[in-house]
Amino acid sequence: MPLKVLILGGGNGAHVHAGIAASNPENEVRVMTLFQDEAERWSKALESSDLVLDYTDKDGKEKQFVSKPGLITKDPKLAVPGSDIIVFVVPAFAHAQYWEALKPHMEPGMVVIGMPGAAGWEFQAYDILGDKAKGITFFNFNTLPWNCRITEFGKRVGIVGFKDYFVGAIRKGSVEPKVDPLKAIQQSLGPRPVCTAYGDLLGMTLTYTNAFIHPSIMYGRWHDWDGKPVSESPLFYQGLDQASADLLSGVSSEIVAIAKTISAKKAGIDLSNAKHISDIMLEFYPEDIKDKSSFLRMMQSNKAFEGLRHPVINNEGGGVSPDFKARYIWEDVPFGLVVQRGIAEIVGVPTPNIDKIITWGQGLMGKEFLVDGKIKGKDIGMTRAPQRYGFTTLDAVLGAA
Ligand code: NAI
Hints:
Layout (H helix, E strand, L loop, with lengths): L2 E6 L3 H11 L4 E6 L5 H8 L5 E6 L5 E6 L3 E3 L2 H4 L5 E4 L6 H8 L8 E4 L6 H9 L7 E5 L4 E7 L3 E7 L2 E7 L9 H9 L4 E4 L3 H6 L2 H14 L19 H24 L11 H8 L10 H6 L11 E3 L5 E3 L4 H4 L2 H15 L4 H14 L4 E2 L2 E2 L18 H4 L4
Parallel strand pairs: 1-2, 1-6, 2-5, 3-10, 6-7, 7-8, 11-12
Antiparallel strand pairs: 3-4, 8-11, 9-10, 13-14, 15-16
């Protein structure tokens, strides 16, 4: 029996996952994208073409995955029933509609995977799925296994880089999963990256790295910006300065303190996956980091980060200005730092560095999340903070209430 893989989304990552999974006849691949007419356009594109993924292999040779996913639809009745694994490969701001669409068709024993789910993924799932969440196994990863960009919608995608290692966490439901979650995701992704899973699901929400890396570095570079355009977009990681690295490390230490406090309160919860950012970097990029002498040097010398720049907008009069509308603020603050700060509040851990960045970020967005030291601002409805769902106890955050 083939593994029935349902991929949610229609962007870069969804194309790559669909293409790789469908290139193995042991997988039966369906894609569900709810966005506009994307499903129709993608199906039509594949009437006259295969889905081709271009990449450079480790031996330096140009290679391709060539395949055709079995079904691309926006209809959950066609897509969901019978699925073994259901994989979210779509930005966090679009997740709610997918949970709503999945809900009527969810079967106990299904495995739902966030790739990445981003912070608070499971809170939204519990809120929307209600009792249906009980029989489901949740498996969240920290990121996407590839850097990738569509070159021709529906037909062709470039995989710029593969991660070598891919780390996630599993929380089993009350019903045994239909398939082994780790074996199944590995089968759908092929041999690269090597997938592992350990620790509680909450560890992924706490250490969803984009959530705190991006806003911390944005804050470090731009919080005292004088408003004058700069000549070019600064390098995001290679151009990191000591103060920004210290801030990022400080934010990460606050998150580790949240995890330690939770572990002290709940002996059975394994949050060994909620590590400091320097340890996470060594775990994800053991071969890419050239200089491990300090945290700053690790970030500056990571091959996987080479050439990545700050999001900017071009100025008519020349030069560039920071793009404060970028995902690094608009996604990573409400679907990241605010969630982590909300958990800190529930367990009473002070987070002065996180607070400073949220205060700055919400100001840029013209939103209110953190007010008078509490996650209670008028805009928490656009976040996935636990408070937004009425989860105000540790048991609720852990899915036990
Ligand atoms: P993407 O930017 O390609 O996603 C676009 C897709 O999202 C659209 O095709 C559509 O299906 C959906 N979408 C967009 N606007 C929507 C709306 N208003 N309502 C409903 N659906 C909408 O995303 P990508 O690149 O596939 O990334 C997926 C996740 O992986 C993101 O969270 C991203 O931050 C993360 N990631 C991506 C990397 C990459 O290289 N592409 C690398 C590392 C992480």
